[in-house]
Specification:
10 helices; AhpD-like
Length: about 210
C-alpha cells in the first residue's frame, strides 16, 4: 500500500508539472511511474527535464519539436509523435504566420515507414516550410536515433544526443502503455486563441 501511495503521489506531482507547463496533465505520466517505479521516475525527470528546457531555449521551438518528432517516428511512438507534431504546428504558425506543410495527423501517418521514407517526407515538408537550415539538424537526429552509437561527435550534437536518449525512454513507455495522444507538448498549448486560429486555418485548407 505504501508503494501504491507513493506511485499515486509521484504521478500527481508529475501530472501537475505537465499541467503547469502545457495546460493539461499528460497521459504518459502514470505509465512512466508504473514502468520505471516512482523513485526512478522522479529522478529521471529531475535529470532530464531541465536539460530539455535548456535545449528548447537554445534550439527554439520549431527545431526542438521537429527533432522530437523525427526521433519519435524512428522509434515508432504515436503518443510522442502527435504531441510534438502538434506543438511544431503551433510554434510554426506563431513564428511564421502560416501553416506547416504537413499537419500533425499527416505526420502521424509516417509511423511505421522505413527511415529513408520518413526522412524524405520530413525533408520535403521542412524545405516547403522554408526551413532549409533545419535539414542538417533533422538528418543528424535521424542518424543518431537509428544508429547504435548515440554519443555526440561535436558541440551541436550534445543537445540532439540528449533528445535521442530522453525520447528513447519516453517512446518506449508510450509504445508499451499504448498511451492515447493528448495535446500539444508545449506552453503554446495554453494559448486558446492560437489553437483556434490553427484549427480554422486547417479547416479552411481542407475545404
Amino acid at each position: 500500500m505504501a508503494s501504491s501511495g507513493l506511485e499515486r503521489g509521484v504521478t500527481a506531482l508529475l501530472e501537475g508539472v505537465g499541467k503547469r507547463l502545457w495546460g493539461f496533465p499528460p497521459r504518459l505520466m502514470a505509465p512512466i511511474v508504473e514502468q520505471l517505479g516512482p523513485v526512478r521516475a522522479l529522478r529521471w525527470f529531475v535529470c532530464n527535464m531541465p536539460r530539455y528546457e535548456r535545449t528548447l531555449k537554445t534550439f527554439g521551438g520549431v527545431r526542438t519539436h521537429l527533432l522530437c518528432v523525427a526521433i519519435s517516428l524512428m522509434n515508432g511512438c504515436p503518443y510522442c509523435t502527435f504531441g510534438h507534431a502538434y506543438a511544431l504546428e503551433l510554434v510554426y504558425l506563431r513564428d511564421h504566420g502560416r501553416l506547416f506543410p504537413l499537419d500533425e495527423h499527416a505526420i502521424g501517418m509516417l509511423l511505421g515507414l522505413a527511415p529513408a521514407a520518413v526522412r524524405r517526407r520530413l525533408v520535403a515538408a521542412v524545405q516547403g516550410a522554408g526551413l532549409h537550415a533545419e535539414v542538417r539538424w533533422l538528418d543528424r537526429a535521424i542518424m543518431l536515433a537509428i544508429g547504435e552509437d548515440h554519443r555526440p561527435s561535436d558541440r551541436d550534437d550534445v543537445g540532439i544526443a540528449h533528445l535521442v536518449r530522453m525520447f528513447g525512454v519516453l517512446n518506449a513507455v508510450g509504445i508499451a502503455s499504448k498511451a492515447a495522444p493528448d495535446e500539444a507538448h508545449d506552453p503554446l498549448n495554453k494559448d486558446r486563441v492560437l489553437k483556434l486560429r490553427y484549427a480554422g486555418l486547417r479547416a479552411a485548407a481542407i475545404a
